[in-house]
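Lecture 7 notes. Example A: sequence first, then its structure tokens.
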Amino acid sequence: MKILVIDDDAAVRKFISMTLQRKKYSVIEADNGMSGLQLLQEHRDVSVMITDLIMPEKEGIETIIEVRQQYPAIKIIAISGGGKVSPENYLVIADALGANTTLKKPFSGQELIQAIENL
């Protein structure tokens, strides 16, 4: 299974990628939604996208909307630590726009793997 990880925080991307790779998932990374969408065009075999919601250039909410329109089969996990409002508010919006599941930062590797297995 190939998983696309989109997060502007390099440390978060590394944590997620290493956690997934230890479970033998194939991982590709992007630092914003625009780069993530470009990678989806190149990698048609992505099954799951994990995206942060607050990012520069193209935020996760916009990315989720575009992925739902262009790649409806991809499972989406939205992640957020919040911004000007609590992360729960952003995650509720992501859920309403098509995320399959959501995780509030910080989350454990175990919680991440469980979310993927539940998809």
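Example B, a different protein, same format:
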Amino acid sequence: MGLFSKLLGDVAPDLDLDKLVKTVTDVAKEVAEDVKEAAKEVKASVPESDRSAAQAPARQPAAYGNSWGEFMPDEENQYNYPGTYLEYFDHIFRDDFPEYETVREPGRSSRSYVYTLRSGGLDLIKIELLHDSSSPYKLRRDCAAIGLPYLRFYYDHDGWWNTRTYVRERVRNAIGR
């Protein structure tokens, strides 16, 4: 306590630092004990079968396949595709939507891209590929203002695989196909 006594001695000469430190330590120990007790109560209230299931990571398919989670799915996705993420999305739009003209343009930031699917010269949907920290609001608002469907995919969001089924089905649903 010597350093604190020297620092605070002029400002608060009546302050008993030893007593203050003991009080803070006692309170911290009480809080730690309360947390341990609460954890025991929660653990006791969860049936054993649920506890073992919660400890194992889930690998259940999501709505459009297993496109997110801790483990890479076996299905084709942007990370197991033998090319860049742009080549992967080009491949999906070219092969799964051959009836539409696909236009790719740079987005608002240097790390984003916008795909437009067109039919007969009319835009059907805007699809934005974004970096994890990008803001999707500008293009989304612009599309909403004119009634044009909008989707976005993050190409580097940890745990998001963008499986082919996931991308294809989201686009199909958005354009009503």
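Note on Example B: The first strand starts at residue 101 and ends at 106. Strands lie at 101-106, 113-119, 122-130, 150-154.
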